[in-house]
Each structure stands twice: as C-alpha cells, then as structure tokens.
Design goal:
The chain is mainly beta. It has a single domain, classed as Jelly Rolls, CATH 2.60.120. Helix content is 10%, strand content 26%. Strands 1, 3, 4, 6, 9, 12, 13 and 15 form an eight-stranded antiparallel β-sheet that branches. A five-stranded antiparallel β-sheet has the order 2-5-14-7-8, with no helix packed on it. A two-stranded antiparallel ribbon has the order 10-11. The longest helix is centred in the first third of the chain and has 11 residues. The chain is globular, with a radius of gyration of 24 Å. It starts with 5 loop residues before the first helix and ends with a strand. Bound molecules: magnesium ion. The site of magnesium ion has 7 residues, from strand 7 and strand 8.
C-alpha cells in the first residue's frame, strides 16, 4: 500500500465507524523517524534457510531421498502388519516404544526400470529412518487393470508414521466411498477435488504431515494435521486427524513415539513408485 493512501483510508474507516477526521491521532513524524519506529515490527533472525529448489519435483538440496530408482537401502520390512481397528492399533502403538528400529530386514518389493513396484502379498514396506513432521513427495502409477473396480483398482497408501494413511487408488472414472478415494485421508476426509490422472500415467502427492504430540502421561497434547497436493492441486488443507487410520470403527489417539517410519502399503496391487523424497520440518 502506498503511504499517501493511508490518511484517506483511515478517514473512510473513521467515517464508517461514526468518527470524524479530528478523531484520527496525528502522527509526530519527526519523533517517529528519530526512533525509527517502523523497525520495531521488522525482524531479521532467524533467517529462513537457503534451499536450492529441485527442478520440477526432483529432490531439493535438504531432502532425504527415499527412492531414486536405484536401490531399497532406505526401506525394510515393517515389524507390524496393518492395524484393522483401534483395539489392534493402540496395542501396536504402545509396542512401538520398545521396537529395535536398528534391526535390518530387506524390503521385499521389486525394482524394475528405475521404478519401485509392489510385490502383492509380500507386505508393506517402511523407511529405515524415523520421521515426525515432514514434507513428503512421492510419485506413483496405477497400472491399467481391466475388470477391477472400487477399492480393488490399484490400491496402496502412504502411511505417515506407519499409522496415518493418505490413500492411493485409481479414481479416474472409478467410484468408491469418497473418504476412501485417491488423496483422501482414509476414512476421515475426502479430497477437495478429484485430481486423478488415468491409470497408466504418473501422478504425484506432496504431503505435509504434522505429527501428533503426546504428554508424558500419554494424553494427547496436539493432534496430527495433513495437507496434500495431488498432481499439484490442493486436496487436503491442513485437516485435523481424529486418530490413526483404521478400517473398522472410529479412530482415537493412542500414544506412540515422536518419530516413526513412513510406510507404503501392499494392498495386493502392483502400484509403481518413483522419485520419493522427504524433508524434515
Ligand atoms: Mg490403501
């Protein structure tokens, strides 16, 4: 806003409030300039870190690269399977405090032509590193599967902390429950738009996940929040999660460690992945 428009706008605001121009406090510019009063609301530290943006969606300079087409060094087989309801999930969450995450086990998925491919029936995979608040980029492709429909057509998922799923599914001209379609926070929030590309085409998710925080007695201090861009379109805008993803029943929070692996779901379909990276927030 130009400085000389301020008195006019102030006058308009005062008139709207039933005040007259005389009610506007006059400014002593000489005094203000002596004290450089405007500097009181300007700050210089801490400086935002300088980050070299990636070309298009290639990893930026501060990313942890989780898959670049070469190997599965950043992945392993998880200690748990999928938790169906909160009775299971709350016990699993408690057990996560005692897991030895340094144990290595080979992730059982396939790499072909620089793509990571789900091996149906082999189970989900999870990162060897632990993460809390993150910005995650992942590209995925739902293969054409003639005759498949609904939740059976190219189902997978990105589980932040292994517990909170953003659904992967082919929802290009394939309907299912909306809070279970692609880019939904599964069983909690449908996407704002259906940004799905046809099966056989690469798609992307950019996910901002804010981890839930727990007090030392296990009570919830702050819930998890998720923002998602699907193929560059906003589909989840800082939605507040009501707990971990569960297939049956209502979710609620169960205390778990501050950082946990990110996992990718094996739901029996040969979903392909590429260019996976994450930034710690
Ligand atoms: Mg899924």
């Amino acid at each position: 806003m130009k400085l000389n428009t301020l008195p006019f706008l102030s006058l308009l605001m005062c008139l709207a409030a039933g005040l007259s121009a005389q009610d506007i406090p006059t400014l002593n510019w000489a005094e203000l300039q002596k004290a450089k009063a405007w500097e009181a609301t300007e700050y210089y530290k801490p400086e935002p870190p300088v980050v070299t943006p990636g070309y298009l969606t290639l990893p930026p300079s501060d990313a942890v690269v989780l898959f670049d087409g070469h190997d599965l060094e950043q992945w392993r087989k998880p200690s748990f399977g999928y938790g169906v309801n909160m009775e299971q999930i709350s016990v699993m969450a408690q057990m996560m405090f005692d897991l030895n995450y340094n144990e290595r086990s080979t992730a059982p998925w396939q790499i072909k032509d620089g793509q990571l491919i789900v091996v149906p029936g082999s189970g989900s995979i999870e990162t060897t590193e632990m993460f809390g608040d993150v910005q995650l980029h992942i590209e995925w492709l739902a293969p054409v599967e003639v005759g498949k429909e609904g939740q059976q057509y190219s189902n997978s998922g990105v589980f932040s902390m292994g517990l909170y799923e953003v659904q992967i599914l082919n929802n290009y001209e394939n309907k299912t429950y909306v809070n279970g379609q692609a880019s939904s926070v599964y069983k909690q929030y449908p996407p704002l738009v259906n940004a799905s590309r046809p099966p056989g085409e690469w798609q992307s998710y950019d996910i901002v996940f804010i981890a839930p925080k727990f007090k030392s007695n296990g009570d919830l201090e702050s819930p998890a929040y998720v923002t998602v861009l699907h193929n560059g379109l906003l589909t989840q805008h800082h939605v507040q999660l009501s707990g971990p993803t569960c297939y049956i029943g209502q979710p609620y929070y169960a205390p778990h460690p501050e950082q946990l692996p990110i996992s990718l779901q094996d739901h029996g379909n040969k979903i392909r992945f590429r260019n996976i990276w994450v930034r710690r927030l």
